[in-house]
Design a protein that fits this description.
Blueprint: E1 2-7, E2 16-20, E3 25-30, H1 39-44, E4 56-58, H2 64-67, H3 70-75, E5 82-84, H4 86-117, H5 128-135, E6 138-140, E7 147-150, E8 153-159, E9 167-175, E10 178-184, E11 207-211, H6 222-238, E12 242-246, H7 252-265, E13 274-277, H8 279-290, H9 297-304, H10 307-311, E14 315-317, H11 321-326, E15 334-338, H12 348-355, E16 361-365, H13 374-379, E17 384-387, E18 390-393, E19 397-400, H14 410-421, E20 426-430, H15 434-448, E21 452-453, E22 460-462
Parallel strand pairs: 3-4, 4-5, 5-6, 10-11, 11-20, 12-15, 12-16, 13-14, 13-15, 16-19, 20-21
Antiparallel strand pairs: 1-2, 1-22, 2-3, 7-8, 8-9, 9-10, 17-18
Helix pairs in contact: 4-5, 4-8, 14-15
Bound molecules: zinc ion (ZN) (2 copies).
Length: about 475
């Protein structure tokens, strides 16, 4: 029995593991490769997936870099179950439909050029109907409840505290008289994040696959970051300015809402109008609100007495394009949270076009910005940017806040591995660039004397 790496091996995207024994084949995550020139090609190379012999798929959470290739399984003829938490089913549906739409429109645009250039047509990786088809194969599982998913293979999902529904997977594999316990961390969240419970740790395993995104550094403490945000908002309120916050629709937007609710409740800040200007964030927030049972105790208590609704009485969801455009006319201090997170598309672009050139505007960057994105240009102090082909001068104030990550920092990853390290597992580091993952590996080895593997794409880990 062995596990094959199908992505996130020396990088942070394309998460995927194929577990194979003499009697079963199970896929854990099937995420999309993102960014980089090779990504599209890598997403299309799927001959290593024995789609028709697969017994089951397990999904850790709904981020695209973990679920983004799952609809391809529909096109390859996979008709078996996909196991994850109920809230992950709901989040994944939103993410995959959006992804299919993007791919269909990208293919359409590039095909217009391809036809004129005499090149063969490009097909989208999958279409909306493939998503609809594969979504019918999802089977929700409860946290902590063991479940047999294939001959000799059972799983238990535990909260990973990363986004709503996120899970680490403990997999027990039995084959030809051998029994192995393998833990897949999935993406591990930080401790004390708003809304979610802290990540669950494990006490014993033979092999642990651990993410290493921030294996070389810690984030700024969340309390400091909240104070920074508060200062910016207080300043904007006094000066009657608009605040623009590009944010990821799932996770980051809801965390921001929670922080704002707290500021209003404590009367640190006068209630400003807040616009959630992203159809996807609106859908994601509805999903969060449907699952109070898996929130942390603080959020449960607030939800039970409808406190958050009261705190956020000035919050508006802008659904239509017209409603979104109308925010430009708002002539009072307000907060606009709009997609997309890295400012590569979405409604944040039209807000930037109307506001970046003004002096009395505050832009707050709260998330990671990939190379060559508009968001990264702003973070690095660009004096001009291009939006929809138009050159815009940047006169707005740009603030970058570093403490709102959905990932555990180095110290928290080391705390996560400590309890299970006592059982002397082999540690396989994935989901990290080479620098961070080696830095984390060296420290785990120094502290616990464990064997650390740094596999590459296509490598096999024997069990
Ligand atoms: Zn994630
Ligand atoms: Zn990830």
């Amino acid at each position: 029995m062995h596990i094959r790496l199908g992505g996130a091996a020396g990088e942070v995207t394309g998460s995927s593991y194929l577990v194979e024994t003499s009697r079963a084949k199970v896929l854990v995550d099937f995420g999309m490769f993102q960014g980089g020139k090779l990504a599209d090609q890598q997403n299309r190379l799927n001959d290593w997936i024995p789609a028709q012999q697969l017994d089951a798929v397990v999904l850790t959470h709904g981020h695209l870099d973990h679920c983004g290739r799952i609809p391809i399984l529909a096109t390859l003829g996979y008709s078996g179950p996909i196991y994850c938490t109920l809230s992950t089913v709901e989040v994944t549906r939103v993410i995959l439909l959006d992804s299919a739409n993007l791919q269909e429109s990208d293919a359409e645009r590039s095909n217009k050029k391809r036809i004129r250039a005499g090149k063969p047509l490009q097909y989208p990786l999958y279409r909306e109907e493939d998503v609809e088809q594969i979504m019918q194969q999802f089977k929700p599982v409860r946290y902590s409840a063991p479940r047999e998913i294939a001959p000799g293979i059972s799983i238990r999902l535990e909260d990973a505290g990363h986004i709503l529904g996120s899970a680490s997977v403990e997999m027990t594999i039995e084959d030809q008289g051998k029994r192995r316990v393998v833990v897949f961390s999935g993406d591990v969240g930080p401790k004390h994040a708003p809304l979610l419970r802290d990540p669950v740790t494990f006490s014993s395993a033979d092999v642990v696959f651990l993410e290493s995104t921030y294996g070389d550094r810690d984030h700024r403490p969340i309390e400091e970051t909240k104070q920074e945000l508060l200062k910016i908002l207080q300043g904007a309120e006094r000066a009657r300015e608009k605040v623009l916050i590009p944010a990821f629709a799932i996770g980051r937007t809801q965390n921001l809402m929670y922080h704002l609710a707290e500021m209003f409740r404590n009367r640190d800040l006068a209630k400003l109008p807040i616009f959630i200007d992203s159809p996807m964030a609106t859908k994601a927030t509805e999903i969060y609100m449907r699952h109070p049972a898996i929130m942390d105790d603080e959020t449960k208590a607030l939800a039970a007495r409808k406190q958050l609704d009261q705190d956020l009485s000035e919050l508006r969801y802008t659904v239509t394009r017209e409603e979104s455009m109308a925010i430009n006319e708002v002539d009072q201090p307000c907060i606009v949270i709009a997609g997309s997170g890295m400012c590569t598309g979405g409604r944040i672009l039209h807000h930037f076009k109307h506001n970046l050139w003004r002096e009395n505007v505050q832009v707050v960057i709260v998330g990671y910005m990939g190379h060559d994105t508009l968001g990264a240009a702003l973070v690095h102090g660009a004096k001009h940017v291009k939006i929809h082909g138009e050159r815009i001068v940047v006169r707005a104030s740009i603030h970058t806040l570093g403490g709102f990550s959905a990932h555990a920092g180095r110290t928290e990853l080391l705390e996560w591995i400590a309890p299970v390290a006592a059982s002397q597992p082999r540690v396989v580091l994935t989901h990290g660039e080479p620098g961070p993952r080696e830095a984390l590996g060296k420290e785990i080895q120094r502290r616990h004397g464990l064997d650390i593997a740094y596999p590459l794409l296509g490598d096999r880990i024997e069990l």
